[in-house]
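Key idea: predict the complex, not the pieces.
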Amino acid sequence: MFGYTVKRLGQMIPSLLGIVIITFILSRVLPGDPAVMMAGEQADDTVIENIRRDMGLDQPLYMQFFSYVIKLFQGDLGMAYHTGHTVAEDFANRFPATIELTLFSILIAVLVAIPVGIIAATRKESIADHISRVFSLIGACVPIFWLGLMFIYIFYSILGWSPAPMGRISGDLNPPTDITGLYLIDSLITGDFLAFRSSLAHLILPAICLSTGTMAIVARMMRSSMLEVIGQDFIRTARAKGIHEFLVISRHALVNALIPTLTVLGLQFGYLLGGAVITETIFSWPGVGGYVTDSILAADYAPIQAFTLVSALLYSLINLLVDLIYGWIDPRIRYE
Amino acid sequence: MTAELLEVSGLRTEFVTGGGVIRAVDGIDLKISRGETLGIVGESGCGKSITSLSIMQLLPKKIGRIAAGEIRFKGEDLVRKSARDIRRVRGNRMAMIFQEPMTSLNPVIRIGRQVAESARYHLKIGRKEAELLSIEMLRKVGISRPEQIVKQYPHELSGGMRQRVMIAMAMVCKPELLIADEPTTALDVTIQAQILDLMRELQQEEGTAILMITHDLGVVAEMCDRVVVMYAGQVVEETDVRTLFRSPQHPYTQGLLDSLPQLSEGRERLASIPGQVPNPLELPPGCRFAPRCPVKMRQCEESAPELLSTESGHQCRCFLRQMEKEAVGS
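Result:
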């Protein structure tokens, strides 16, 4: 198990290196000159030339790449010129917000999708099944930006149920003491009920919005893998024991059906990170997603590269975790 | 209340398919007394497995249904019982083992828990007690080191071991009836004999009645007291096992026996019954075996013969036997 984990971590190095190369090149071919962006359109050429030299942009591309990689190995993610902070500082400020949003979305998606998938499979061809299939089709098709805008329009503008889509907590409240960086958890720990309510109210719409795609896909996967498992011989054996159908499903079918669903959930994590960029921009959520959007618009290379790299790293780690969970729930899988 | 443990009468099981309603079992009568072994023999698709699933009330939901008949277990009709009452019998007083030991065990649950599961459910015993019971059951079915095996998972065991586990699982509540659907078909020949021996031992110990579903006449000869031969959803012959092998009455049974290899006859081509089991959606109008029957008469293609008793308890569905009987009678 330990050896396997080390091996998998080792295998991540070449793919991360590939990502470093690709994002480096892609961000260089983006239109826009960071030096011009910093100096302003009206600045004269010597100023721009000086900035360019300071940023190392006058160097040939391969030199820029090597100095970037060397800094990376020193743990230096570079400078975000459009904020004036280091990327590491900006990430430290903003990543907790993104993590809170993403985790909460996954939680919503799983809590809804898995029961829905089970019910749809066990009551195949029933009305509940048809409704769940229609909704998962819609959920998988609707683009996040449209859904986000509709949510804001309906729940904020028309109904007034939700707070203004700005930030993680009402402006007149202090954020809870920073323990985990997740407002919901921190406010619970400190017993700050007002902060909890407010941050939940701010979180719920973007989280639902971000979760829909995952929810739809996980529900469909759960339904189809459940259907497959229910058709297996060992389910007939379980029924032949005379135990209640609820036990047949919960004890014998569920774990077996969760295995493929878990894979899909792991793969969905990448989609969630991408979706977070859009969701955060729409809801002015102060996470890394909105920050990256700003960086792209400002042609600020370092944060774009850092975000891509960190996302790829997270994605690989999550999928490694998924593989390890497999081994835990399915005894047939053992890692050497 | 009758003396029979299980009494199936006029059982008709149907499947709804895209092509129409298939009558997989068409009017079957069976009787099993306590401690007896009844065999059901027939080719694939003759309805023998469906009969066993009907008795267990385990037909696939929505597609399969019992259209007519009674299944009396200890005098009570299972067909008309609620799902809850059936669960009380199933796995408890009446248990089943299946053909595929490789896929019939849950891959993610430890052997011990699977063996004791129905006992924990029906007999309401605790976790500790259940573990001891599964160890005892595994020992009883001839598994060595049962204390270790209970902690293992199905994929760690061989096919023969798994079938032993299946038997332990079925026998854990000491059922009065054990339905075995091709229990040895998926196993090696040497293992087959061991499993059959084991079943017979347990039967003598516990007094369990066995309904043995098989296509293997060797298994029938080895295990059964009485035999029912099925063809295309119907019983074509029923008698005790000696009579069946000594003087089979139905041409189909005769064909089955002829297709067994005989050591004394040298190595000729094995006899076989020409043709195939009829499509259940297009059954012949007369006798269902007529298209393949070597001694078919005109009458056989026009009307269907009844299942008639010929001599002491020997039943046969064939016009030829009927005519013989009438000839003797007149």
